[in-house]
Design goal:
Layout: H1 3-9, H2 13-17, H3 26-54, H4 57-65, H5 69-77, H6 80-94, H7 98-102, H8 105-127, E1 139-140, H9 144-178, H10 184-187, H11 189-198, H12 202-205, H13 209-230, H14 234-250, E2 251-252, E3 263-264, H15 272-298
Parallel strand pairs: 2-3
Antiparallel strand pairs: 1-3
Length: 299
């Protein structure tokens, strides 16, 4: 695809930049991110203090790892602090609303549901294909009845978490950079690198930490592409929500954010030999999901 055609494909992104371009100075973006960081840190510190004072030491540990249903619900819901931080920063520094960052709400919702339906159909097709055992016997985590009872709350919590990350990275940061720089290498690349840095955790992932970060970098670039093509955050939130629904609520790794999953994998994220093949599979599925969303947006 030529540069000219690529730019035309990203024409819808201009809708998201209308308000951002009124105050495009980089110092505003940096100051805004400072406000976001202060809000997140302060509210999380208050939350953890409450958890430590009201609950047992065991529950505080569960909270840090998301290893029980109640703990993970709280952890995921706490991502609303990022959305609150972005809302405050955008209002104070750029005089923007959260709605202007998400994009036209009716269009965003329509795109979200269209992409979600397509991804759900894709999942059904993939489940009907071999192999049927995912390469290893899964370990039951929650009884199906309890999982179903928790599912409405779980879905809301995952939506809060995924939308918060998209609002911050593909919304606030991406738009702030795109208002100042024309090159997608900057306004797509820098937020994706920050997103990848946030997923780099050698303490948890061991030798797989770089691969996990590379996966996050690729996901950030694909979500940024969808946002630029759609003119709203709807498709990116849908792709992120669908990915985390599977990874957090259906089949999760047992050592981190595992409390709400129906099943656990029989190995941990630091298990190099076992995890690496599945990271490659997950990467391939991410590409297929992105292409599916692209097809939906072309209709």
């Amino acid at each position: 695809m030529s540069a000219e055609n690529h730019n035309r494909a990203y024409d819808p992104h201009q809708v998201l930049l209308t308000e951002a371009r009124k105050r495009p100075e980089l110092w505003r973006l940096v100051a805004g991110l400072g406000i976001v960081a202060v809000v997140i840190f302060t509210l999380n510190a208050i939350l953890f203090t409450m958890v430590a004072s009201l609950g047992s030491a065991e529950w505080a540990t569960e909270f840090l790892t998301g290893s029980s249903p109640s703990a993970l619900l709280v952890v995921l819901a706490s991502f609303i602090f990022a959305t609150l931080g972005v809302t405050l920063a955008a209002r104070l520094i750029q005089r923007r609303s959260l709605a202007s960052i998400i994009g036209p709400q009716t269009v965003a919702l329509l795109q979200f549901w269209r992409v979600m339906r397509a991804l759900a159909l894709l999942a059904i097709i993939l489940l009907a294909l071999p192999p049927y055992d995912l390469g290893a016997p899964l370990i039951a985590n929650l009884p199906l009845s309890r999982w179903l009872v928790l599912l409405p709350l779980s879905l809301v919590a995952v939506l809060i978490q995924t939308s918060a990350e998209e609002i911050l990275f593909r919304g606030y940061i991406q738009q702030g950079l795109a208002a100042r720089f024309r090159s997608p290498l900057i306004w797509m690349g820098l937020p994706s690198l920050l997103f990848a840095a946030g997923h780099y955790s050698p303490a948890t992932a061991g030798e797989n930490a770089s691969l996990v970060a590379a996966w996050a970098l690729a996901f950030g670039l694909l979500a940024a592409d969808l946002t630029a093509r759609a003119g709203t955050l709807g498709p990116a939130i849908a792709l992120h929500f669908f990915n985390n629904f599977v990874a957090l609520l259906v089949i999760s790794l047992p050592d981190s954010l595992s409390g709400l999953a129906l099943y656990h994998l029989p190995y941990e994220v630091s298990d190099t030999e076992a995890i690496r093949p599945w990271l490659l599979v997950d990467f391939a599925l991410m590409i297929v999901g992105w292409l599916t969303a692209r097809m939906v947006l072309k209709r």
